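Re: Re: token formats

Sure, here are both.
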Amino acid sequence: MAMDNKCRASTDEILRAASTVFWDFDGVIKDSVEVKTRAFVKLFQPFGPMVVERVRKHHEAHGGMSRFDKLPLYLQWAGRGANPSRVSEFGNQFGELVLQGVIEAPWVPGVESYLRSNTHQQTFALISATPQDELEQILYALDLKGCFAAVFGAPNRKKDAIRTTLAARGLAPNDCLMIGDARADLEAAEANQVPFMLRWHETNLNVFADYTGPSFKDFTAL
């Protein structure tokens, strides 16, 4: 999936041309995908290696999916009831495991500078599967909230968050761009006819093996 100079220039032009950029967080702004993988592994370790491996594979293949959609499924695989109180209990444990890890995770190279400088005077909106209150805590700790005109976390669905923003701001989909690293990000963009740009990394190479659209590994190349 490596880009030649022509593709890189094209990707750069696509990014700069967007008046509004929708950003995913994990794997796009912070290299925090593995933080959440390790948390799911730790959470389900008591249920044995087969359950852990099934959870890990599903999580990596569905990176943009909310934990509250994943946990009922994983609890069923673990032979536990997926009632609301248990899902909430496991969700809280997961949040405690990942919060500081995400804050301390490395930045995707070049992205912090791009967000803070906003050289092209673009409007940025953050759209993440992380719960809203947890997302707000992370942004506060990173002093990053001021970079975004809007912030959407779970339970907001990504496609709904994009649709709401387009309607509220009177935006044309073709003037926008969604940057993500998961199928859920691509599907949310496609549902709203918004162009998509992939941030690829080792975890999503297989998931996007058939992807041929604009992509990048880090912002230092853009």
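Second one below.
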Amino acid sequence: MPENLSRQPHSRQPLTALRNPVVLFLATGLLALVVIAVGTSALAEQAAAEEAVATARDTTEVLAHSVAEPAMPKGLVAGDAGAIDRFDREVLDRLLVGDVDRVKIWAGDGRVVYSDETRLIHDVYPLGEEEQAVLAQGTTDAEVSDLSRPENGYERESNGLLEVYTRIESPEGEPLLFEVYYSAEAIDTRQEQIFAQFRPITLTALGMVVLVATGLLWALTRRLRRSAEEREHLLRAAVDASDAERVRIARDLHDGVVQDLAGASFAVSALARTPDVPHSARGGLESAGESLRTSLRALRSLMVEIYPPDLHADGLVAALDDLLARAAAAGITATAHVTGAEHASDEAVALVWRVAQEAVRNALRHSGAETLSVTVDGFGDRLVLVVTDDGRGFDPEQRRGAEHFGLRGLSSLIAEAGGHLDVRSAPGAGTTIRLEISGSAR
């Protein structure tokens, strides 16, 4: 038989969990913490790198304008050996300080006029665009050294260098390029020292976020719990009020109309057997008595629908038989079977009853079925209800009509009981309604 599944609870459960406000809040909070941690770490690392380079630039400017430029003798630019020797003896120790690995002074034509590596002095290498811009504008610039360039031939064994250059002037007034090389390892160490200063700020910020998020989560959880308790209280109050009204109506029917119909049925049947009644009238009286008994059975079935008289595990079979009395009166072959439900709680039995009631009511009203069966089976701690008819069926994807409104209205109670409901049908193939819940549902 082709089937269409109108409800797929297993696939919906993850979606339901994802719609839970607490889960969403926790997921959002965790994502926010990760973003903040990554973002602040990246920003702090970037700031530390910029600060380390800025420190190197400041050091270079101090060495250039406070050490090298004032002590530069005349003749250094012209390549005078005595001037170079005097500058080397008086200034070199004050230039090679801290993280400084190499010092070079360039003329505008690319000639090295001085270097702590004396083999470079008088060599000529073309200046790049950045160096020429510094000479022209008097700014300070920094970049990672390209150790493959010819002028860096004596630094190729290094693990990396940062070169910073600025402009100075010779005693003759000629602009020169003052260049200082810093060890990359030293710059990294300085960067780590600076970054270490940001780390407490980052951790403090994250701690405050966690603290605030925890407070908000606690408040939200309390509010949700309070709302759930209020909702449950209102639901139970509504159910209790409905049950009380059902009991009152059932009691009034039993004490009034049912008793009157029973008495009238007995009276008519007794009258039909009285010898004084003409034979021609006895058939009509027997027919009237049978009509009264049929109405009485229908009314009792209606009373069972309104409120079952003995709704617990042992009385479920009788309640279902009474529920199906209307089906039998309508000429439908109806059966009820209950197995393994002895240990089910009254709450679970009540929920099974309510779903069976709605399913049978829908079948009688809309299916046009010839047979109708209701089975309840207990499997371990699970209770399974199956209501099947051979009626006209329908397409669940195209017809979510009012005949299943009552079942949809029970969905929240089924979910709270940890169960799920399947409605399977196809045009011309009947309908099967299957409920599975915990046998200890509360």
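The domain at 25-190 is CATH 3.30.450.20 (Beta-Lactamase). Confidence is low (pLDDT under 50) at residues 1-16.
- S.
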